[in-house]
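Continuing the batch. This is chain 6 of the set; chains 1 through 5 are on the previous pages. Same settings as before, nothing changed between runs. Recording input and output for traceability.
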Amino acid sequence: MTSARRTLIDAETTPYYHIINRCVRRAYLCSEDTVSGKSFEHRRGWIVDKIKALSSIFCIDICAYTVMNNHYHLVLKS
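Output for chain 6:
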């Protein structure tokens, strides 16, 4: 069952959150796919630009981020 965000996030406890999002089925987000030989490195810039744009829209501070081959990490401050 889903829960309301106000019950999940308590800014008084900590304003910082570590968020992870990864690809499914061993798909490549960035880097070179060893099977097909295709390079997806161009996506890294797209993802960084989108993170910056969304942070300004939703008024969330990004303390740190990293974009890996098949996932990315964000440290957010509410």
